């Protein structure tokens, strides 16, 4: 399969494009940023202007994907979807009628992102989750409001006395505890599963904004078993295939499932290897093909990724001397609004705590570097 073309669509296609390239494929990418490292990894790229503000729209996205497919010397084997489709089952259905979806279909996305049906199914399966309802709580203390189909934590708000029932929002009791995620490839004869620990980087407007993730968290064997068992049970119940992630909060030593993202997510950066194991396994699961019996050597280092946001203020990128450990590198002249994702950093260390600490230090270093090289 080496050298075959594959379509990728995501708000940021960089991680998928790099994994596909490591796995020997020719990634054809439609995304919202067109970052320098995405351009480097992709065989061809089309930027969907305004997608981050409005979400993907059917006609511009299909036009971009058709142009990418036409530019390829060989017909693409299918389309892999990343972030940006969680609340768009009709768009996924339209894409599925035009291309071979290498991942979950519209019905699976809708089922995973419909709060009433999803949490009712968790009750049937005996899987713990926070108290969740479609109407505002009588006492808002300790409650959150979330947007149906939201991801990345940017849509989560703290309830107050003025909160009202709104279409496409639901309400969930807030739990405190460690944030752990089960990521991997599902729906095949042998799942590739791994845990990550995640954290948030709050801002005044977005108190639960996703901040980063690290592999190899120090988790007790019994808790690990519970997390993996719950993920496998839910994946089976919803027919999830390919890369997906299951986000938990561990409260009172019990993992509570918050949400499922039935597509490749941020953990790809910290769980993949140098030959694109996860991308290979994803395609094998989606195409119903047997996977290689080779097993990767267990990693001896923890990997962390963290997102830098433009919290100092909006800026226009200059000619930044990007460090080797940075990613999502915007071209010079790119306008970054205040609070928007600015870049990412990677770090490796012997333990998850050390890798996370190094990533956080690099965030500060990269922030200084970027703001020093802004255009006037």
UniProtKB/TrEMBL annotation:
InterPro entries noted in UniProt: ATP-grasp, ATP-grasp_PylC-type, UCP016817_carboligase
KW ATP-binding (keyword) present: yes
Keyword line: ATP-binding, Nucleotide-binding
Organism name: Hyphomicrobium denitrificans 1NES1
GO molecular-function terms, A-Z: ATP binding; metal ion binding
Pfam families: ATP-grasp_3
Location of the ATP-grasp domain: 219-288
Protein name (Swiss-Prot/TrEMBL): ATP-grasp domain-containing protein
């Amino acid at each position: 399969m080496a050298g075959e073309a594959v379509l990728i669509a995501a708000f940021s296609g960089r991680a998928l494009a790099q994994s596909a390239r490591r796995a020997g494929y020719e990634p054809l990418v439609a995304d919202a940023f067109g970052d320098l490292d995405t351009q480097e990894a992709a065989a061809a790229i089309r930027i969907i202007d305004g997608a981050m503000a409005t979400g993907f729209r059917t006609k511009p996205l299909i036009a971009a994907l058709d142009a990418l497919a036409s530019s390829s010397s060989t017909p693409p084997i299918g389309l892999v979807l990343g972030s940006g489709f969680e609340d768009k089952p009709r768009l996924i259905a339209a894409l599925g009628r035009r291309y071979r979806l290498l991942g979950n279909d519209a019905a699976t996305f809708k089922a995973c992102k419909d709060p009433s049906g999803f949490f009712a199914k968790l009750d049937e399966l005996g899987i713990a989750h926070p108290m969740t309802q479609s109407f505002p709580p009588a006492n808002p203390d300790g409650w959150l409001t979330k947007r149906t189909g939201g991801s990345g934590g940017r849509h989560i708000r703290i309830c107050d006395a003025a909160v009202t029932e709104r279409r496409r929002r639901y309400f969930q009791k807030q739990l405190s505890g460690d944030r752990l995620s089960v990521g991997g490839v599902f729906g095949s004869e042998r799942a590739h599963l791994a845990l990550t620990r995640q954290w948030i980087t709050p801002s005044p407007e977005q108190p639960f904004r996703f901040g980063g993730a690290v592999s190899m968290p120090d988790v007790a064997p019994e808790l690990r078993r519970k997390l993996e068992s719950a993920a496998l049970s839910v994946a089976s119940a919803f027919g999830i295939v390919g890369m997906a992630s299951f986000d938990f909060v561990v409260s009172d030593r019990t993992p509570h499932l918050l949400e499922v993202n039935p597509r490749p997510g941020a953990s790809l950066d910290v769980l993949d290897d140098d030959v694109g194991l996860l991308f290979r396994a994803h395609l094998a699961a989606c195409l119903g093909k047997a996977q290689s019996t080779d097993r990767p050597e267990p990693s001896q280092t923890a990997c962390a990724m963290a997102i830098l946001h433009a919290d100092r203020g909006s800026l226009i990128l200059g000619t930044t001397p990007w460090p080797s450990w940075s990613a999502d590198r915007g071209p010079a002249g790119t306008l970054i609004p205040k609070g928007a994702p600015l870049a990412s950093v990677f770090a490796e260390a012997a333990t998850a705590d050390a890798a996370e600490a190094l990533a956080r230090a690099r965030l500060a270093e990269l922030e200084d570097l970027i703001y020093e090289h802004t255009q006037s």
